[in-house]
Specification:
2 copies of one chain form a homodimer. Chain A is α+β, with helices and mostly antiparallel strands. The first copy, chain A, folds into 2 domains: 128 residues, 2-Layer Sandwich (60s Ribosomal Protein L30, Chain: A), CATH 3.30.1330.10; 142 residues, PurM-like C-terminal domain (Phosphoribosyl-aminoimidazole Synthetase, Chain A, domain 2, Alpha-Beta Complex), CATH 3.90.650.10. Chain A has 9 helices and 12 strands. In chain A, the strands form 2 sheets. A 7-stranded mixed beta sheet of chain A has the order 7-9-6-10-8-11-12. Chain A has a 5-stranded mixed beta sheet with strand order 1-2-5-3-4. The longest helix of chain A is centred in the first third of the chain and has 17 residues. Chain A is globular. The two termini of chain A are 17 Å apart. At the A-B interface, helix 1, strand 1, strand 2, strand 3 and helix 4 of A face helix 1, strand 1, strand 2, strand 3 and helix 4 of B.
Amino acid sequence: MGELREWELLEELGRKVSGCGDDCAVLPFAGTQLLLTTDLLHQASDFPPGTTPYTMGWRAVAASLSDIAAMAGRPLAVVMAASAPDWEGLFPELLAGAQAACRLVGTELVGGDLDFSEELFLVSSALGEADRPVRRAGAQPGDCLFVTGPLGSTHLALRLFSQGKSARANELFRFVPRVTEGLLLAGEATSMIDLSDSLAHSLHLLSRASRVGFVVHPEKIPLVPGVELEEAIYFGEDYELLFTARPGALPPGPWTEIGQVVEEPGVWLSQQGKLRKVPDRGWEHGP
Amino acid sequence: MGELREWELLEELGRKVSGCGDDCAVLPFAGTQLLLTTDLLHQASDFPPGTTPYTMGWRAVAASLSDIAAMAGRPLAVVMAASAPDWEGLFPELLAGAQAACRLVGTELVGGDLDFSEELFLVSSALGEADRPVRRAGAQPGDCLFVTGPLGSTHLALRLFSQGKSARANELFRFVPRVTEGLLLAGEATSMIDLSDSLAHSLHLLSRASRVGFVVHPEKIPLVPGVELEEAIYFGEDYELLFTARPGALPPGPWTEIGQVVEEPGVWLSQQGKLRKVPDRGWEHGP
């Protein structure tokens, strides 16, 4: 999938497009901030054989809603552009999945565009609002590092798809965008990102945006049963929120502390009293 | 391109997605209305050989901005998701084209998503605002019918592309979204749509939404030099605005009166004192 090249391109886009570089664009409007984001998913990269149209529609929309969640935003509306070789039978189920994901977080699919193409493409764009958007920049040395849930669900789902265990794999693929958690963290989290990329890459993105480093305690990383630590660190597409907060600032909630923010930029695992550098990479280039 | 099937799907989408059925979704927010729209363009359908990456980026973004214009909206921001086999050399030019189209109408590209796929796909989503959005419903018998400019530029561009005259074809492809005209028409136009589809289909959409009919005077339809009347009526993708207004309500402006609104739903050409029914179709199914 050429993940590194995609990352490089996205960083180039970030340099050329002002305001780009968070999970959503932030637009001051009528005394608040509007959030706007778009996500492209397509058959070859994102939907292994066995993925149902319902799951595809759900996942496409949920990916954008996760970006709204990652800025502590409230979703206002979603539109979806979709293209497929043949819509016969596909359209109602795909639409139902997209609408279900929207309703789950209190928003609605309000429009779209449809076309025909050899490969199936789904592009969802979400609009949101945030009084106090949380950005990738803002983590400070001494802050604690958290995730909102166990990592590895997408990695496990892909394994199950490849074993033909599609029912369970589809369930895992239909993740819940962490909108409620994001809203709870408005004004509390000092920096935030969703784990659409790997934990490793996401930490490096936070590190570069906040100009700080992270020491992660691997034994504290919550894992989906059946997933290994390295898979959880380098795989990604889990759509949990990764965020920082001042020590003691957060009440107990649906999150797990997994590390600390340090001054020196970079990412380390603390294992058996030693620090091991975590490279900025995804699974394709993994061990 | 299976236009009729696409239209049927879009109408099915309109029935299943509440609020869908105008050029943009309309979202009441903070005492005004936000507009949200998304458009998908891809190589096989939308970019003939000879189309430059700059033109592709321009046209993708301009298609969404035209939807904002068609609701008498002011664009606030655009995001673009894009996928291509290889971004080498393509990316900077495509981005420059997209940014130029945004700037032309006073807005900005604020973010995007990038990926790799066999076919090139561009999906732009635009956010706008309208105090007084103009919808497809609202035309009344006795109103006059207008277009903002000559029809046939895309048809002519495709002919020029096929003749290898790419420079002029690219120019024609980089249309100006009629945002200024749309804003002038806020509070004046009684119904409006952009001509992303053919004049024939767009009139039928207005007819169904407003429950009225249209009598068009073909000799009044402004044509791009070199384009025949039938081509202008059935081809589409011209992105001019088609709208109605009370007689005498509009000052002279960048628009041409081409017909009247009548009570009986349907679309007719008035030729040599006779009315000829205009079928609801595009060029592929044309004479």
